[in-house]
Amino acid sequence: MKPSNTNMKQTILLAATKLITENGIKNTSLADIAKAVGISKGTLYYHYASKDDIICEIADSHLKIITGAVLNCVQNANTEHPKDEIIKSILDKISAIEGTGRVHMYLICEAITANESLRERIKIHYMDWRTTLKDEIKKTFHDDDESSDALSFLLVSIVDGLVVQSLLKTEKIPFEEIATFLINHWC
Amino acid sequence: MKPSNTNMKQTILLAATKLITENGIKNTSLADIAKAVGISKGTLYYHYASKDDIICEIADSHLKIITGAVLNCVQNANTEHPKDEIIKSILDKISAIEGTGRVHMYLICEAITANESLRERIKIHYMDWRTTLKDEIKKTFHDDDESSDALSFLLVSIVDGLVVQSLLKTEKIPFEEIATFLINHWC
Amino acid sequence: MKPSNTNMKQTILLAATKLITENGIKNTSLADIAKAVGISKGTLYYHYASKDDIICEIADSHLKIITGAVLNCVQNANTEHPKDEIIKSILDKISAIEGTGRVHMYLICEAITANESLRERIKIHYMDWRTTLKDEIKKTFHDDDESSDALSFLLVSIVDGLVVQSLLKTEKIPFEEIATFLINHWC
Amino acid sequence: MKPSNTNMKQTILLAATKLITENGIKNTSLADIAKAVGISKGTLYYHYASKDDIICEIADSHLKIITGAVLNCVQNANTEHPKDEIIKSILDKISAIEGTGRVHMYLICEAITANESLRERIKIHYMDWRTTLKDEIKKTFHDDDESSDALSFLLVSIVDGLVVQSLLKTEKIPFEEIATFLINHWC
DNA sequence: CATGAATGAGGGTTCATTCAT
DNA sequence: CATGAATGAACCCTCATTCAT
């Protein structure tokens, strides 16, 4: 049985994500993707209207995942030391993202550089992500509005910033110490 | 005296930086740069061996500048409330970087994606930058080694992360509140 | 009774004519036509063997219509001043054809360029058209054979030529003055 | 000695004109032109910015030629029977244009269909052509303004219309009789 | 009857790079 | 030193056509 239409779209998306993760957006051609899937370029265009279309779907999928992950972290932290856990699990995530982090950076660069509609989409997800975080912080820790706001911006920034450093492989990032430091000062 | 070799190289570098800041690396062609400088592509190749060569020099120049700026921030903070000042002046920098921030992101993306030797160079600068920060923190605030380390990673991350958000123009970043929050919790 | 085969062919033809009128032959894809009709490309191929096939049928239909129109003009002119009326009604037609004129030009270009069998078909209709015109001229005005011949060629040319100018929208065509001029010199 | 830059542009233009005359605009690819000249597609783009650019230059060149030709006809007719001569020489031109006529039709179709700036250019040349004709008619034959206007429109139309018929090769066009007819009725 | 899926050849265009002059 | 000219590979995209279901 051949893969259904939906399956084919999924297959293409997976292959595209993999290639882009490895080589970046500009260094991944539609020919590469088609070859990886084992179809012709024409077929690619049957399923997606353009390269931008593919990138947008990757962005959607990627940003939904990280929004979900963050939300998950925060919501599962209803124990005695919730902040500890949040910080630890976020840092755990970062230290394990290699692949996801790369796509993340590529999408951001693409959004900044070239693709108006992609920027719109990423923007929305980003705001969604941060707002979710802020609301949960406020609800869980009874912080005032301004503090929650500041903290949410900081957490998002720290994630992005650590992703950058981890991708550059500058040096081994001391996630343990960072976690300890954050817990000591924020909890 | 004719405009020296060095001058021409500088002129090219400035024009290239400007164009890349505006349009990104992949969207800036050597033809664009040559036209902006008012020379031919051939002449460009006389001064620089390749596009990558130009990008590497831009990266060098850019990273030297920001390393210097950060060092400056930290060293001039020998007053009564040094941490306050550091944090404030770093955030001031971020909120005003527009152009610098863009090149920064483009260079990082390029380094991650394609350019092995660029990655090496950026790596070195990043480590330099962070180590400087850490040493100053340790010296100035008498923090222990692990804390200084963690804090330096965090500060660098926050800078990069806020740059990302500011470039995406997701929402107005509340630099004031963020500064207050950081000062309250770290000082 | 289900919509008959003939009906579907008609529907397709109408949609295709509309699209080609608006965008030209090369700029109208079979996908466009299929979408306009609300069927799949596969179905299109069930009804017509090829794109050329569709174009030929459009040409047939279009040329039948204008031949009929011209014939009508000439035959209804059995009054006191027949030539006046013919000229006026032909120019009226031209000044109102916008759409028809476009298809006309597109078909002619296509015929000249690429489509051997289309050229044959258009050729036949053109000869039919001109001969009809000539015979009517001869019969109605008792002109000699050579004059009728020349005049029929001229009339056909003037139609095509004015269509060209009207489509190029070069300037407002003074149909009134042209009619007057023709009437003064030919009647 | 290699052909100079100007020569190369001319060479390209000639080859392009030839191919387009034979096969039409849409059926002439840049690859075809490059191959005909014996250069790479890249080189083509070194000399011309786009396919449209090439077409526009062909249009310029073509329309300048026919405007000049018509002007020439009219101006050289300062003898006893000027109208006779004008009509005869115009018809002579038409009966001999085969190649020129094809480009003419292709350019017009292209202008109508697709190319805004090409349409502008052709428009201007067309108006130039007709106005020139009108002025000469008025000056030479002392016709009133409205008549000159009408006649100029008619002459241009007849040219375009006869070109169409001659390209369709419908039947042998009786240029002699047409000339006679026109002379009898207009002179 | 009708379709969704696939194709492959070809389209125009871009660009880093080379090199004779 | 400087350049204009040339290149060729790669890029994204279009589309008439085919065919199993």
TrEMBL record, chains A, B, C, D:
Check the record and name the PANTHER family matching this protein: ACREF/ENVCD OPERON REPRESSOR-RELATED, ACREF_ENVCD OPERON REPRESSOR-RELATED
- The organism is Romboutsia weinsteinii
Q: What is this protein called?
A: TetR/AcrR family transcriptional regulator
Q: Which InterPro entries match?
A: Homeodomain-like_sf, HTH-type_Tx_Regulator, HTH_TetR, Tet_transcr_reg_TetR-rel_C_sf
User: Does the keyword field hold DNA-binding?
Assistant: yes
Q: In which domain of life is the source organism classified?
A: Bacteria
Q: Which residue numbers delimit the HTH tetR-type domain?
A: 6-66
- Pfam families reported in the protein's UniProt record: TetR_N
Task: Identify the DNA-binding region of this protein by residue numbers.
Answer: 29-48
Q: What is the lineage of its organism?
A: Bacteria, Bacillati, Bacillota, Clostridia, Peptostreptococcales
Keywords (A to Z) from UniProt: DNA-binding
Q: Name one GO molecular function term.
A: DNA binding
